């Protein structure tokens, strides 16, 4: 079997020797250079499987090499070596296309993990049961972006409205990455009580607090080797934001009550429906953490901006419903499809799923017509006089119902967490649930 070949660039002989010996013991051949000019020449002469470069070199810096390799040899994963604590240059390298980074002094265990992950990269276009449905320009661009960011280890922030499928995008990034055979752990940060969040994320040791009757492995450790998806990351309280930042930067965690830290190897993906930049400006979210998790941003367009996808999505969803219910896949009439394509979908794809599930039930699983959709676009003009108080009242009730259901769904029906998202007390939420018949 052919050995892998690594390119090492560092002006310090001791570092080059350390990296060479470590990789040789992993059955990887190494060719070294002490500067950029030598590296450019070697790239023309050999076919490398991985590149490791120092950021500070006699004739330039590692960022120049990252950019060059991205343009000329995009199939080669490149990891940069930065001075300890210099996260700005590491983040800049990741934004430029670096696969990962290492801090000096180089931790050999971390080095081996980075190299192993890099060599596991495969063609991101392989088949997967999880995929995006659509033919719009936005979906095609999103698919291309997922394939590109999947090759990196950089943290990715997935932005978009509620119901657009941010969790699906996170799962696809994982499945197209070198970590695809390792765990994918999604965490709804808004659904975990604040006083339990540290224990849930980092774990705890027996006796560390009341109720800790046994050691518990945290979600960071459970995702070791794989991907941790922090959904609703904006809901993480500030005292935990500091600890999360350190865990991401140092790649180490300390379980509650533990004396020693644990090395972890995970990729962080995160998402939220909130305006995280506004939370930063309001002082509710740490700026340094924001830039650490937002190395690469992937935006998921709302459904109203990609109407070309509605028909394909509707067909796909109906096929899923029919398979689940063991019934023949219902047809959808042209007027009904036209109505869907005109609708603004404030709840996006998730709302489309709910509408079609209800329509299948209303139509008895046969032809879905416009009446069985039972939708009313709140942004359209009402057929009634707009100055009638009853129209305004019904509109407000519908908006209130939609917001409450969205918060409950987001928190997996945790009422305490939902009340917090809505900015009301638990008692007020309970009253509204009773009033709307949702209790």
Care to describe what's here?
The chain has 439 residues and is of the alpha/beta class. It has four domains: 116 residues, 3-Layer(aba) Sandwich (Rossmann fold), CATH 3.40.50; 163 residues, 3-Layer(aba) Sandwich (Rossmann fold); 71 residues, Helicase, Ruva Protein, domain 3; 47 residues, Orthogonal Bundle (Arc Repressor Mutant, subunit A). Helix 4 links the parallel strand 6 and strand 7. It is globular. The protein starts with a strand and ends with a helix. About 4% of the residues have low confidence.
Compact description:
With 439 residues, this protein is of the alpha/beta class. The protein is built from 19 helices and 16 strands.
Which descriptors apply to this entry?
single chain, about 450 residues, Rossmann fold, 16 strands, 4 domains, five-stranded parallel beta sheet, alpha/beta, about 45% helix, about 15% strand, Helicase, Ruva Protein, domain 3
Helix content class: 40-55%
Specify the structural class.
Answer: alpha/beta
Query: How would you write the strand order of the largest sheet?
Result: 2-1-3-6-7
Percent range for β-strand residues: 5-15%
| Count of DSSP strands | 16
Tally of individual helices = 19
CATH architecture of the largest domain: 3-Layer(aba) Sandwich
Radius of gyration: 25 Å
Q: Which fold does the CATH topology of the largest domain refer to?
A: Rossmann fold
- CATH class of the largest domain equals Alpha Beta
Question: Uncertain runs with pLDDT below 50, 5 residues or more?
Answer: 123-127, 377-390
Shape: globular
Biggest sheet statistics: 5 strands, parallel
Number of domains: 4
